[in-house]
Amino acid sequence: MEYRNPDAVARMRADFARQGAMASMGIAVADVAPGRCVLEMPFNADFSQHHGFMHAGVITSGMDSACGFAAFTLMEAEAEVLTVEFKCNFMAPAKGKRFRFEGDVVKSGRTLTFTEGRAVALAGERETVVATITATMMAVRGLKP
Amino acid sequence: MEYRNPDAVARMRADFARQGAMASMGIAVADVAPGRCVLEMPFNADFSQHHGFMHAGVITSGMDSACGFAAFTLMEAEAEVLTVEFKCNFMAPAKGKRFRFEGDVVKSGRTLTFTEGRAVALAGERETVVATITATMMAVRGLKP
Amino acid sequence: MEYRNPDAVARMRADFARQGAMASMGIAVADVAPGRCVLEMPFNADFSQHHGFMHAGVITSGMDSACGFAAFTLMEAEAEVLTVEFKCNFMAPAKGKRFRFEGDVVKSGRTLTFTEGRAVALAGERETVVATITATMMAVRGLKP
Amino acid sequence: MEYRNPDAVARMRADFARQGAMASMGIAVADVAPGRCVLEMPFNADFSQHHGFMHAGVITSGMDSACGFAAFTLMEAEAEVLTVEFKCNFMAPAKGKRFRFEGDVVKSGRTLTFTEGRAVALAGERETVVATITATMMAVRGLKP
Which of C92, C129, C134 sits opposite B89 (nearest CB)? Predict the structure, then answer.
């Protein structure tokens, strides 16, 4: 896959920086490539559920952003990205020292982009996939906040 | 539907209170009934995405918790609830003064509970459904954090 | 909801009649209204799974068609409808004398239409929801087979 | 992954042979391995939608069966498999001479098994992924038809 827009990564990082949610949750960009985005987050008890694991919605926030920005890297300069829908499976409790969120474009179209991703819990040497996502993203033009 | 456990609401509220994520996002319990849970959240720029709307993952956090606690109200005293999977659709940008998250049990089984829910944006008199969820919850026993 | 196209029902029924799958499975149109389509099917052992219930994929075929045609009733005259994605939950074994598939539009946009539906097993007086679907449909123009 | 039951493949093939739906649609077993099942189907106009492509529900039938039997290969001798839920994305029109349905186990638990799969259209040398699925399967004991 290739960037369609030379400023794709710069635009993506600028948009990421404007997401209050990512900053509040402590999620940061780890890697970007055409059609791929990887985010990382340290464990944070402020975003736990009641057994002390990370909340499924927080894990989803990381996976959704990774997929949305993966899609965004392949969009044209004037397009914005919105999430149409996603489906998440939770295979294991989200416990770990850190979490990595990977998003990959499966198919990029003019309007719709299909993506998939996963959340990986990191604890020492051990990596555990705790959740997976498939997400459909839409390129929108002329979006007004 | 009826509670299977006389302490269901007290247990549910205690578990809710232990969720770091709900407190951090400003999500509170608005209503509980057998097989139903309603949560509410004021708009919070700390949890926005880059167009200033609430982040899809935050909207999902509210819907997931509403559905999980709706399922929990019908579980036996020794059971804990975990999210197996969910699917969310985002119909409209999540803009509003407040958000209401409704979760309802569709079918409650011994192991699995099917739920559905929605996120409603409130702005003055206007209510807009901005997202829907279907979620499968699992009753687990002997869960160790 | 209202038809955007005076020939919507006639076009929908003509398209339905061209679906080899619906004829082969014995699925027929029971009711059409703006943003709604109801199909019906008698139990058919030729489309069972190995416990003798209707196959989940066949139940899905009925729900997908009901949702797709519900979306189609609200589309413009030159548009065709394609399924982008769907999510199905199976709450009960699909056993019954007949099955009813209901599809309803939740939100109709120019490009994307959000729908939801269900499959109901009928046996004498008893009606049981055996499955639910949420489906995203896309209006496409200039589609070539 | 390893079979937990020495008769897993024989049981799987016997159950497959009892599925009326697979025979009617012309879907056959191409390959089985622990945690994996591959099915194949020639194009069949009897199961088309109205543009002449294979119906999304039929493509789903193949993917669901591939995933269900992949899960079944890892189950204990007394367990039966039922589909709890699935999510399917349709990336490209299902046109081709033949279709291959691949199902793989992602995580196998005592009660729930997470699977993923895809439908590949074959036309001469060309292979196109036309759809993907994530499906949750449940092991049930003592199921009565």
Answer: C134
Res. C137: pLDDT tops 90? yes
In the sheet with D126-140, reading across from the earlier edge strand, the strands are C28-33, C36-42, C98-108, C112-123, C126-140, C80-90, D80-90, D126-140, D112-123, D98-108, D36-42, D28-33
Question: What is the CA C95 to chain-centroid distance, rounded?
Answer: 19
Contacts of A62 (CB under 8 A, 6+ apart): A25, A27, A39, A41, A99, A101, A119, B57
Residue C51 near residue C91, CB atoms below 8 Å = no
Contacts of B84 in chain D (CB under 8 A): 84, 112, 136
Helix (H, G, I), strand (E, B), or coil: what is residue C100?
A: strand
Which amino acid does the sequence have at C79? A
**Separation between Cα atoms, residue D124 and residue A64, nearest integer Å:** 37
Which of these, D51, D47, D48, D22, lies nearest to D37 by C-alpha position? D22
Can you spell out the DSSP letters for chain D? ---SSTTHHHHHHHHHHT-HHHHHHT-EEEEEETTEEEEEEE--GGGB-TTSSBPHHHHHHHHHHHHHHHHHTTS-TT-EEEEEEEEEEE-S---SSEEEEEEEEEEE-SSEEEEEEEEEEEETTEEEEEEEEEEEEEEESS---
Residue D83 to residue C50, Cβ atoms within 8 A: no
Q: Of B91, B107, B116, which has the smallest distance from its Cβ to C107's Cβ?
A: B91
Q: b/e for D49-58, b at 16 or more Cβ within 10 A?
A: bbbbbbbbbb
In degrees and rounded to multiples of 5, residue C42 shows phi and psi of -75, 155
Consecutive 10-residue averages of pLDDT for chain D (145 residues): 88 93 97 97 95 95 98 92 96 96 95 97 96 96 69
CA atoms in the 13 A half-sphere facing the CB of B141: 6
In this structure, is the dihedral angle defined by the CA atoms of residues C66, C71, C75 and C79, taken in order, positive or negative? negative
Distance, in Å, from the CA atom of B119 to the CA atom of B121, rounded to the nearest integer, reads 7
- What is the predicted ipTM? 0.94
Q: Are A53 and B145 in contact (CB under 8 A)?
A: yes
As a whole number of angstroms, the distance between CA B105 and CA A84 comes to: 24
Cβ pairs bridging A and B (under 8 Å): 130
Query: Using the beta-carbon criterion (under 8 Å), do A48 and B19 form an inter-chain contact?
Result: yes
